Amino acid sequence: MAKRILAPLFAALAFLAWTTMAQARIPLPDITELVDKDGPAVVNISTTKTIKAQEGARDLMEQFRKRGGPMDDFFDQFEKHFGPQGRGGGKGQKQRSMGSGFVISADGYIVTNNHVVEGADEIKVQFKNNEKGLPAKIIGRDPETDLALLKIEGKSNLPYLEFGDSGKIKVGEWVLAIGNPFGLDNTVTLGIVSAKGRIIGAGPFDNFIQTDASINPGNSGGPLIDLDGKVVGINTAIVASGQGIGFAIPSNMAKDVIGQLRDGKKVQRGWLGVTIQDIDENTAKALGLENTKGSLITSVIDGQPAAKAGIKTGDVITAVANQKIDNSNDLLRRVAAIRPGESIELSITRKGSPVTVSVTLGERDAKKLALNGPNQNDEGEADGDQIASVLGLSVRGLTAKEAKALGMDKVQGVLITEVGDGSEAEQADVRPGDVILEVNQRPVSSPDDFKKVVAEDGKKKGVVMLLIKRQSQTVFRTVPIGESK
């Protein structure tokens, strides 16, 4: 009897709970009106590029010829019958590719990715429901952010999109992508912002918005749009082996770059003239920092703005113009966003004490930023070499020849000759051939100096921070002392 009464009661309660949950669910957004409004401003971009015919075959043959062997006979017979492959030029062939873009003004300015139009001989823009492509010209490109600005002439009253504020968008917000994936024009996909501030190794200013809105080849250059109809990102990259992982350039970064290109200017970025690295827990401990926030200066380039302002190797920049710095990528982006010639204040921690430095920025020149190749060190022995086994590594004095080969003005530091397998030093990426210039921000010029600082200051702190000269670079590496071998 009780079971008969309770069963309908449980069923009623379950139904009530289900309906309550259903009512509490957040409804999916209706984006039909948004697509009708913004869709016409999104365009397909097709490009034509002339490439040298047979370049690939020629390069492959040359690689095999360099190796020698039986393939030489094959290539000799091939060229006998078909002629030299790629030698002396050859006809060019057309390579076609497609991407996306969006109009940002009624008179025909269009934003897309640099990689969509780079090297193109001909660019055509096609609007929704219009089979005829319109010729476009490149107004400007910025390879470092992968952005480009195009223009179609003779048009007015075109539908266009406005940039939104990517800084305000939150993880979990709905966004939609419109573009040309696999040549399927004006395709709309919906998803959310999966993450912000992603660094994927695409360039020096990585700060991508990650989204699970479906993005595929051909979406490059198209807009990522919020529910207010504003562009918060420019779709630019995908993870080829994954699904639902796409990346967009934040609109706040794009607005500044596109504004400069539209004014007919080259993109100008601020420049300090330093090399930098992130701070790990051991390094923070060695520097007496409370956390790992900030960017550690590993070298200061002579004659550049940082050197003129008195910034030193080992300084930690914690804020730019009172805006806190999280890491080196953050510092790079913030400085680059400021115009050359402007003076800014940097908050610095120097040997445990806060310092404020005013610096007038120079101009970043991407062409001059390529690192020099590895130096080839001359072999040479120093008189009266001293060996010191500390921290799982062996060091000795540096010869004049070795210092010269490393581009050093004078003999300083100690040379690492061995690093023990499995030692703390090896785990901290300390390598044979590195030259230790400083230990815990104290210069060392001999193995005895090295041992003394390690035994005193290092033991006290439990870690040693090594300033290392490695080929053409200087880097910091931090090694715990407690478990040294």
From TrEMBL:
Protein known as: Probable periplasmic serine endoprotease DegP-like
Positions contributing to substrate binding: 115, 146, 218-220, 236-240
Protein family: Belongs to the peptidase S1C family.
NCBIfam families according to UniProt: degP_htrA_DO
Signal peptide: 1-24
PANTHER family: PERIPLASMIC SERINE ENDOPROTEASE DEGP-LIKE-RELATED, SERINE PROTEASE FAMILY S1C HTRA-RELATED
BP terms from Gene Ontology: proteolysis
Subcellular location: Periplasm
Keyword NAD: no
Keyword tags: Hydrolase, Periplasm, Protease, Repeat, Serine protease, Signal, Stress response
PDZ domain span: 266-352, 376-446
A matching Pfam family: PDZ_6
Active site: 115 (charge relay system), 146 (charge relay system), 220 (charge relay system)
Domain of life: Bacteria
EC number: 3.4.21.107
One GO CC term, this protein: periplasmic space
